User: Fold this.
Amino acid sequence: MESHEPPPTLSAPPPAPPRLIKPPTPPAPPRRGRGWMIFALILLVLLALSLFMNLGQFTAKIARWDGSRSRTAGPRLDEVVMEDNDASAKIAVIDIDGIITSREIDQSGYNLVDLIKAQLDRAGKDDKVKAVIIRMDSPGGGVLASDDLYRAISNFQEDSSKPVVTSMGNLAASGGYYISAASRWIVANELTITGSIGVILHSWNYRHLMDKVGVLPEVYKSGRFKDMLSGERNPAEIPPEEREMVQGLIDETFARFKEVVAEGRDRAHKENGDDGKALASDWKDYADGRVLSGTKAFDLGFVDELGGFDDAVERTKDLAGIDGEANLIQYRPRYDLSDILRLFGKTQAPVIKVDLGMDAPKLQAGQLYFLSPTFLR
Assistant:
């Protein structure tokens, strides 16, 4: 008997549970670079160096404290060995290179005169320094700066009894020779350009240019000669008395130049005897601004010996009574972090510099110079 039961109904499968959607993984935070760590480390090292240098300077100043409770101010100098000959005696070498000026030469705030005086002071206080060599390579410069250095070298020799020898390089003219005349001994190469004994005062007159562009100066002055050397005046309006006064000033300064040459060379000849050279009887005939070769200067007695730097070293050892070898040293300016940071505090107007193959001297109109302009054009 057949069964009439309905076929079993297939139940639908249970619905699948909804899939959980995971939120996107947030991006990893960017890794912080190590640049700031390097910068901080460098800054800490610089600060430590600055602290160390300042501590060293403070210690050095305490060591130089003398009985009068005073300390010497001036450029900070470090002793540098130029030539180590394993000797106890030392010879200090001082360079005078370029235009001789009283202007600030670098960020330290000191000028060439300050630097040379400080070097002479160090050489005078060091008992192991037996003499000084001036390496001269200069066309000259300012009248006052040259005279200051002449007096500084003369006073150094008198106070310390240590000889100064000048070794002339390519050029030792005008103010360069003025300073050299203070030395106990002068050595020049045969081809050294020297001499140029004279004084120059330079100014400009631009009145004709002003007339062309229609500019008329209006001047109020308290005296007849208050605008002396002014470039705004018509040359025809310059009185003869003014020209005589300016020329008188030139002549007076020139007389001082010749006095320095005679004084310095006579003193050196008395100390050197027949080993050195005396000025020729007609030397003033060559003190007219002309330049001389080293050979001609030797013939006229402006220099004592023909040779180079090595010859100057040997002569210096002989004059100083050094038996054997001597170390050659220099005193060079010290620069530290404070000098570098000082540069950031200075603001200067932008300057456009044209490279002409040489640095033109910064001469000021109306000032007197012991200068050989022949080599500056």
